Automatic annotation (TrEMBL), chain A:
Highest classification ranks of the organism: Bacteria, Bacillati, Bacillota, Bacilli, Bacillales
Domain ABC transporter span(s) in chain numbering: 2-236
PANTHER family: ALIPHATIC SULFONATES IMPORT ATP-BINDING PROTEIN SSUB (PTHR42788:SF13), TAURINE IMPORT ATP-BINDING PROTEIN-RELATED (PTHR42788)
Keywords associated with the record: ATP-binding, Nucleotide-binding, Transport
Annotated protein name in UniProt: ATP-binding cassette domain-containing protein
Any one GO MF annotation of this record: ATP binding
Amino acid sequence: MIEIDKVSKSFEQKKGTSYQALDEVSFTIKQGEFVSLLGPSGCGKSTLLNLIAGFEKAYDGTIRVNGEPVKGPGAGKVVVFQEHGLFPWLNVLDNVAFGLKQQGVPKKERHARALEGIKSVHLSKFIDRYPHELSGGMKQRVAIARALVMEPDILLMDEPFAALDEQTRYILQKDLEDIWLRTRKTVLFITHNIREAVLLSDRVLVMSTQPGRIKKEFAIQAARPHQAGDPLIHHYENKIMETLSEELEKVVREEMGHDYRIAKNAVPDLPDRNLGIGI
Amino acid sequence: MRRTLFLIFLIVIWELGYRIFDWGWKFPSPLQTLEAFYDGFANGHLFGSIVASMRRLLISFVISIVLGTGLGFLFARFRFFDETFGFLVVALQTVPSIAWLPFAIIWFGLNDTSVVFITTIGATWTMSMASRTGIVQISKIHLRAAQMMGTGNGLKMFYQVMLPAAFPHLITGVRVAWAFAWRALTAGELIGRGLGLGQTLQDSRDIGDTATILCVVIIIAVIGTISDHFCFKRLEDGIMVRFGLHAAKK
């Protein structure tokens, strides 16, 4: 369970001004729930994840994970990063077993458990490969296996599929949903892709930008596993798109000047409903 | 193959030159050099010198690698340390280590310790700069990943993540440190007393034995090349390939 209560965070900028990344954000993620945090680039969603993960300190408000205030990284929270973060000097097996090694699990057992984890992401053939020998999708699978093998209570995923091509992303989304249905971990998933958020989550929290706030919340009440063709899924996508087009306009204006306007109804036709890429 | 031919060609020219111009004892002929090689190894003097020099070299090398890596780590992690002592090291790096020999002689006397001392100094600074760069350039995501998997921020983090992550830089540092150590060692031994390659050079000069001088020069070149090519270069290539920094050659 993750409880976020009135969390604010600002960064010092060079000229002495401060930049408010998060403004009194509050929400709760229940045990076993899959929640996505969706928003345009720069809305503070990654900052929030870093706070929950314990990578960054110094914020206002309280963050509790399983009732305990966050003290630092580790302790049942595992992160899957956008750029995989695998260790290039270790092969797949040792990368996955790394976390268990830190827990003092004996070699035989940790290799057995790592193998299990690698199997669950369908990479058994590649256990002795090094990260640079793997494709982007495979690296991300290893990163997921590395996270799951530690049997965390909470999985924090920071745009894990953002750098992948469309097909690979689709397959990994399906696999992640499978894994989640099997393990029922609590997942906080960060993305700027509306379809991805709706396809994977029980709940989508839409963030507004500058400062970052939770703008609206959508409970995705569609049958699991979610199907891309499900009209209900499509309906949620459109509703979220409406909510977000305002935010999008804000981002675009910020970057391109104040005379820029997005034509009405133009945004929902973006081909893959991606936000933030290429702006 | 091409290299071997070239070497043979060089030796032939050299012998011819010696015969045609007849320049006398100031530079030996290939045959005299070969003879000096044979004599030197037969009476064990050359071999003894090599062993003695290598012993000094290895001692200083190990000290400077450990010390340099440690210093580099401190520079990379503690800003204050970097801005104070780190600046000094950059300055010290420009001082040829042989310049410390007078001090070394005053402190330790004309003996092995002095030679080891300046050899160590010669290699430590470059090693520390290389290790600093290596550790500074470790990507944040690797450090975070390690922390989240429970390495903490102490020794476990250092030898399981920072050291291997900095390896490509470290190994380059080791190569340069080896070359620097060699230079400092030979220079130090020229002045120091006892048995060693540098001392042999100096002794041979005293008695005008140019063939032995050339022998020692060749030995130094050969050991340097072999150690770099077969030891460090191999190691470096292996690591680079493993890290995916460049594709495997051939």
